Task: structure prediction
Amino acid sequence: MDSVDLNVLRSVLEWRRAGQRVVLFSVVQTWGTAPRAPGAMLALREDGVVIGSVSGGCVEDDLIARLHDGRIAADGPPVQLITYGVTREEAARFGLPCGGTLRLTEERVGDPAWVAELLARCEAHEIVARELNLDSGEVQLSAASKQDALTFDGKTLRAIYGPRWRLLLIGAGQLSRYVAEMARLLDFEVLICDPRSEFVYGWEDQHGRFVAGMPDEAVLNIQTDERTAIVALTHDPRLDDMALLTALDSRAFYVGALGSRVNSQKRRANLAELGLSEEAIARLHGPIGLHIGSHTPAEIALSLLAEIVAIKNGVELKQKKAVESV
Result:
C-alpha cells in the first residue's frame, strides 16, 4: 500500500471525527486492462468532496453523481458491490481501457476507531491486514507480512496496509538534495544523516527529516526494516563505511554507496577487512543506479531512484551501470 491510500484513510478519520458521513470505495477485482490495481481507494464525503482514485477519472465522476442523485442513500446497506465496464460500451463510457472491468466495494464508514488504529499501526511500521465482512460491514485488523496480498472471495475483503517506504541518505551534500526532492515526489519518506554541521544549511525547505548521531547510529535508531533503502553519498569512507557496516547487516531492501567501480571494489575489500561477511557485502549496490549515461547530480539522482524503485517493485535490473559512476 502506498501513502496515497494512507492519505485517503487520514481524511476518512478526520471527516468522521467531524461528524460527516463518508463512503469508502475500494477496488477489489479487475479484469482486462484496468486503470487502478486492487486495493486502490477513494473516499467520498457527504458534500461530494473526494480524495483518492479508483480509475482514470470517469468512474470518480459517476460515483459523485451517484451521491447527488440519491443512488448512495444514507440508510443503505453497510457494504455493497459496484461493477463498471461489464460491456464494451460501459468500458468506453467510464474511460476504462477497451474490455476492462472494475469491481468496487461501497462501504459506509461508521465508527472510525479501526481507521485510527490502522493508521497508528502503520506509523509504527507494522504491516496490517484489514478484513471487511460484506454482509455485516464489520472490520477486523490483524498482523500481516510483506508476502501477503489482497484477497477477495465475494464475502470478505482482506486488504494489506503498511508504512511508507523510507530512504535514509548518508550525507547532506548537493547530490542528496536532488535525491531527496525526487524521492519525495515518488512518495518516499526522506531521512538524512550528516554529522558535519557545514552541510545542514538550506535543508529547511527540503522536507526531509534529519536523524541525529553518527551514520551507524542513525541506521539503528530509525529501526531499519524491509521498507527502508539506505544510500551513502558523502564520498568519505569514514562516514559511508560506518553506515554500510550496519546497513548491510540490517533488513533494508536496498543499500548502496556512491563511487566508481574501482572505488566500489576497494570499499568491498575494506568492509571485508572490517569483519563484514561475504553475504552481507554482496548486498551492496555500487556503483549505484541504472545505466542512463548520467553525469549531472540530477541525472545521477534519477539513475539511483530508478534502481531503488525497480527493486522495490520486484523488477529485474536489466540496465545496471556498466561504466564507472561519479
